[in-house]
């Protein structure tokens, strides 16, 4: 890997690093009025107090060659329409600005600076791989970041970040723990990028917790059009222990289905190999497209943050989608990004209700979150609250407060809950203890 150019373009996170100084961000924010971004706005006046609507922003990449999350800003718009049609939040109308970061660090910074220029009170339910580009401008402007997707570990270190799930670290640790009892050799196929370099750490933490050896690490370009060589190498590694069935774990974001096309062809000589992955790399649409019950995912374990989409706890979200976004094919109720955006706006609603008739600003939103607010999400997550430092601060995740992971399995071509005794709440396993022992360099 020496001398190879590495990029930051990945749908998966890098290892945590120390919180970066934000002194330069203050100057950057001062210039934000002269910068523009490809952002859209739900019509409405500016402001956040009195009779003015509360203004927030949701961003995500769209129309790119890598990972795209158009359902997240679309869900945010639908939520705002529904809230406003029902009298607002505590009598206040909600105004949602949206922004496309184009899977680019410059684009992410422009979105953040636009948020500062527009005086939004929070960035809510968003996705971007470039935490090192957007968090500094947000912190310089004092704007809280509520419910990011968990795609970068920066989201679990920033003092103004309020994550609602455990991101890829929790998903991979949970998957490793589940596979430890089910698999012989485990091959991880992941992006050949800075972010992808750190994925084995979390998968291995779960495997070790189950008394298993570390996974074999297979590199792959995240924008490749075929993965025949990677699939064959992963299969050969996974079948190295004749006493137990091997497992292949593709973690390539939106390119996972491309990998599985190659995997299906290469698998003919390795019929006993099992597959497993994390939500965000695979959803029901991908399972259907790869053959359903006769496809390569049948029997696969898949870890997620939330209950399966058929769970009645999602009924309130589905009602909003049906009323305000019926026929909008960008919004899939089974998409983890859409679900995360819903939960993030649930947090925002709780904050605004707590503020009541006081002024709504970025400062009051942030202080309300910091002052011990506890938010119920109707059982979709544990009760959420954000202490100054959580239990995982020692391993570089001070803001990671929800390490719950649900274990799902593909049966009959459908993604369903795995009926196992997970030992957690809400049908989920709490991976906090596993992550506490992760071998983070």
TrEMBL record:
Keyword Signal among record annotations: yes
Gene3D superfamilies: 3.40.50.2300
Record key words, sorted: Lipoprotein, Signal
Pfam families on file: Peripla_BP_6
Residues spanning the signal sequence: 1-37
Superkingdom field: Bacteria
Domain Rhodanese: 80-139
Family according to the record: Belongs to the leucine-binding protein family.
Name the UniProt record assigns to this protein: Lipoprotein
Origin species: Streptomyces capoamus
Taxonomic lineage from the root: Bacteria, Bacillati, Actinomycetota, Actinomycetes, Kitasatosporales
């Amino acid at each position: 890997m020496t001398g190879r150019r590495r990029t930051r373009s990945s749908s998966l996170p890098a290892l945590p690093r120390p919180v970066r100084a934000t002194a330069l961000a203050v100057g950057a924010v001062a210039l934000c009025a002269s910068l523009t971004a490809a952002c859209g706005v739900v019509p409405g006046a500016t402001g956040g107090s009195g009779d003015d609507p509360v203004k927030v922003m949701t961003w995500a990449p769209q129309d790119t060659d890598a990972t795209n999350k158009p359902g997240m800003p679309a869900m945010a718009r639908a939520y705002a329409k529904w809230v406003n049609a029902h009298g607002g939040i505590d009598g206040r109308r909600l105004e949602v600005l949206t922004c496309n970061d184009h899977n680019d660090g410059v684009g992410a910074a422009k979105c953040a600076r636009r948020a500062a220029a527009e005086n939004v009170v929070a960035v809510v339910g968003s996705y971007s791989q470039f935490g090192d580009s957007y968090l500094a401008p947000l912190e310089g402007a004092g704007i809280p970041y509520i419910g990011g997707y968990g795609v970068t570990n920066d989201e679990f270190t920033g003092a103004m970040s309020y994550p609602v799930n455990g991101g890829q670290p929790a998903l991979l640790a949970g998957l490793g723990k589940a596979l430890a009892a089910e698999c012989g050799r485990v091959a991880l196929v992941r992006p050949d990028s800075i972010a992808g370099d750190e994925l084995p750490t979390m998968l291995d933490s779960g495997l070790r917790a189950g008394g298993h050896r570390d996974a074999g690490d297979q590199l792959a370009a995240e924008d490749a059009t075929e993965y025949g060589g990677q699939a064959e190498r992963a299969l050969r590694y996974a079948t190295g222990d004749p006493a137990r069935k091997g497992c292949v774990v593709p973690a390539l974001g939106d390119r996972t289905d491309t990998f599985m096309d190659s995997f299906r062809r290469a698998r003919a000589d390795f019929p006993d190999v099992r597959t497993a992955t994390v939500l965000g790399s695979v959803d029901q649409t991908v399972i259907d497209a790869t053959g359903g019950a006769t496809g390569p995912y049948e029997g696969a374990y898949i870890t997620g943050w939330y209950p399966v989409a058929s769970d009645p706890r999602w009924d309130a979200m589905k009602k909003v989608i049906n009323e305000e976004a019926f026929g909008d094919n960008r919004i899939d109720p089974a998409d983890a990004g859409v679900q995360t955006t819903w939960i993030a706006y649930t947090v925002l609603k709780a904050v605004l209700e707590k503020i009541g008739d006081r002024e709504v600003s970025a400062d009051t939103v942030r202080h309300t979150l910091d002052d011990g607010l506890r938010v119920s999400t109707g059982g979709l997550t544990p009760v959420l609250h954000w202490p100054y430092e959580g239990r995982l601060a020692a391993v570089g995740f001070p803001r990671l407060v929800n390490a719950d992971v649900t274990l799902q399995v593909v049966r009959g071509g459908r993604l369903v809950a795995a009926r196992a005794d997970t030992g957690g709440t809400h049908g989920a396993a709490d991976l906090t203890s596993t992550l506490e022992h992760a071998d983070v360099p």
